[in-house]
Amino acid sequence: MFFVNLFSEWDYIYDQKNLHDKEKVYLKGKDKIVPPFRFGVEDVATKMWFHKLAYPGQCLTNSHLDIIFYYLRKKGKYAKEPKVKFTTTDCLFFKTIHALYEKFIAQKKNLSLITAQHAIADYIRGRKMLCGSPWHLCDHVFFIIHMETESHWILGRLNIEERRVYMYNSLSTAMKDSAAIKACQPFAVLLPHFFALFDEFKKENKPICLDPFEVVKVDGLPQQTSNDCGCFVASFAEYFIDMKPIPPIFDVEKHRDRLAVLFYKYARMKEVEFIDSEDEAPPKGPKKNLS
After folding, report:
1. Residue 233: phi, psi to the nearest 5?
2. Which label site among 36, 165, 219, 224 has the fewest CB atoms less than 10 Å from its CB?
3. Residue 276: half-sphere exposure toward Cβ, Cα within 13 Å
């Protein structure tokens, strides 16, 4: 695997039988990246971050998916001719909307919980994340969804025009599909009420329908055989954004290797050439009065 050569070989613990199952595969003191790689939404300070991204069977973390989906947003926002008008959310959005949904149900569907001041409304305005776009300017919104009871990632895609949430599940069984559809319910139930707060979503000055969005399972997807759901989620989103059909045979090692190498090379390029995009640059301090 090409990725192994990205870091000095003497930093690596070679144990071919158990290497990729270990939490620590680097010699003591050799795991650190100094200075950390800056990826806009988060800094990466350990080589294990890349190891978990590169090798099949490794569970991706919130950090991996937040960074990947941040760069998908950038890809769509700054493309000269984007094929799809879209934005994405992050792992915090999922936690926020699920927490609100639990309170909403516990309080017998108390609509006073849904306000224009809520964090969910800020996401919809495009103000909550770096490179975020207002949803009314998009056709699709991608959700990172973590099924905690299943320890499994799935992808949600909202088609705003159709009022449908499409559910992408790389571990499809009757039981897991049922749990995945349930995990999509907070989006389906609450977002119509949030949309009703914004005039941009109204058509011909008619009230917005408050019925829950339909949740639709996407069939015919390639299926994981190990703990690779995070990689499948990222790849499903990218295939749709590039308007490419999802292949029935999915080479997860190829996809992981590609992501790890791309992120490593990009981080090194920024470090060597002192490059920071506007969204990744540190906040500017107040101007000094030179008079």
Report:
1. -60, -50
2. 219
3. 11
pTM for the complete prediction?
0.88
Asked whether residue 267 is assigned to any structural domain, the reply reads no
- pLDDT at residue number 189: 98
**H helix count then E strand count, the chain:** 7, 7
The answer to the question of residue 231 being in a domain is yes
Domain total in the chain: 1
| Peptide bond between residue 35 and the one before it cis (omega within 30 degrees of 0) | yes
CATH value at residue 134: 3.30.310.130
- Report yes or no on 237 lying in a domain: yes
Torsion of CA 219, 225, 231, 236, to 10 degrees: -10
Residues 6+ apart with CB under 8 A from 113: 100, 103, 104, 107
Range of the domain at 163: 81-257
The mean pLDDT value of the chain amounts to 88
- Of residues 101, 168, 97, the one with CA closest to residue 128: 97
